[in-house]
Automatic annotation (TrEMBL):
One GO-annotated biological process of the protein: regulation of DNA-templated transcription
SUPFAM superfamilies in alphabetical order: Protein kinase-like (PK-like)
Domain PI3K/PI4K catalytic: 1-233
InterPro entries recorded: DDR_Repair_Kinase (IPR050517), Kinase-like_dom_sf (IPR011009), PI3/4_kinase_cat_dom (IPR000403), PI3/4_kinase_cat_sf (IPR036940)
Organism, scientific name: Trifolium medium
UniProt protein name: Transformation/transcription domain-associated protein-like
GO cellular component: NuA4 histone acetyltransferase complex; nucleus; SAGA complex
Alphabetical list of PANTHER family matching this protein: ATAXIA TELANGIECTASIA MUTATED ATM -RELATED, TRANSFORMATION_TRANSCRIPTION DOMAIN-ASSOCIATED PROTEIN
Length: 233
C-alpha cells in the first residue's frame, strides 16, 4: 500500500510538470490519479467506477461469445514448448519455436480486432468513439512512458483498467520490483505494453497522438525550466 501511495504522489507531481509545460498543457496531458485509502499494510481501498473494465474482461467476453476457453492460448503455448522444457531441442532453436507458437496463436486463436469490436459495441456513437480514442491514446502514452521511465513490468491484461466512458487508464500494482540488492529488477524485452489489439484500434493514432504525447511528456519531465516546490497545505 505504501508503494501505491508513493507512486500516486509522484504522478501528482508529474501532473504539475505537465501543467507548466507548453506542449503537454496544449494536449491536456494528465495522469489519472484515483483516490487510494490505505487500511493496513497489505490492504487499501481504491476509488472505483462501474464503467471500469480490464483487458482481461474484454478477452473473456470475446471467448464467452465464441464458446472458446480463455486459457487455450496459454495451454497451446506450453504444449509447443514441451520439447524445450524436456531438452529435446537446442537453446538456439527455442527462440524460433517460441516465435512459431506465437504466430500460430495470433493467426488462429487471438485476433487483432477483439478490443475494437468490444469498444464499437460499447460506445453509442461516432462522436463518443472519437473522444474515447483520443483520451485513451493519451492515457496509454503516459502509461507507456511511466513504465519505461520507472522500469515497471508485469503489465498483464488483468492489471490494466480503463474507463469505458472516458478512456482514462489506471494500472494496479504499478510500482518497480527490486532484487535482493535493492536494485530495480526488469527483465522484460519490451518496456511497455502496446499490443496488436491496441494498434488495430488506434490505426494511425500510434504514430500520431501516442508518439507525440510520449514526446511531450518526456520534454516536460526533462525540461530544466520546470521546478516542483513542496508546499504545506
Amino acid at each position: 500500500a505504501r508503494s501505491d501511495e508513493r507512486i500516486l504522489q509522484l504522478f501528482r507531481m508529474m501532473n504539475q510538470m505537465f501543467e507548466k509545460h507548453k506542449e503537454s498543457r496544449r494536449r491536456h496531458i494528465c495522469i489519472h490519479t484515483p483516490i487510494i485509502i490505505p487500511v493496513w499494510s497489505q490492504v487499501r481501498m481504491v476509488e472505483d467506477d462501474l464503467m471500469y473494465s480490464t483487458f482481461l474482461e474484454v478477452y473473456e467476453n470475446h471467448c464467452s461469445r465464441n464458446d472458446r476457453e480463455a486459457d487455450l492460448p496459454i495451454t497451446y503455448f506450453k504444449e509447443q514448448l514441451n520439447q524445450a522444457i524436456s531438452g529435446q531441442i537446442s537453446p538456439e532453436a527455442v527462440v524460433d519455436l517460441r516465435l512459431q507458437a506465437y504466430n500460430e496463436i495470433t493467426k488462429n486463436l487471438v485476433n487483432d480486432n477483439i478490443f475494437s469490436q468490444y469498444m464499437y459495441k460499447t460506445l453509442p456513437s461516432g462522436n463518443h468513439t472519437w473522444a474515447f480514442k483520443k483520451q485513451f491514446a493519451i492515457q496509454l502514452a503516459l502509461s507507456s512512458f511511466m513504465s519505461y521511465m520507472l522500469q515497471i513490468g508485469g503489465r498483464s491484461p488483468n492489471k490494466i483498467l480503463f474507463a469505458k466512458n472516458t478512456g482514462k487508464i489506471f494500472q494496479t500494482d504499478f510500482h518497480p520490483a527490486y532484487d535482493a540488492n535493492g536494485l530495480i529488477e526488469f527483465n522484460e524485452p519490451v518496456p511497455f505494453r502496446l499490443t496488436r489489439n491496441m494498434q488495430a484500434f488506434f490505426s494511425h493514432g500510434v504514430e500520431g497522438l501516442i508518439v507525440s504525447s510520449m514526446c511531450a511528456a518526456a520534454q516536460a519531465v526533462a525540461s530544466p525550466k520546470v521546478r516542483i516546490y513542496r508546499t504545506n497545505t
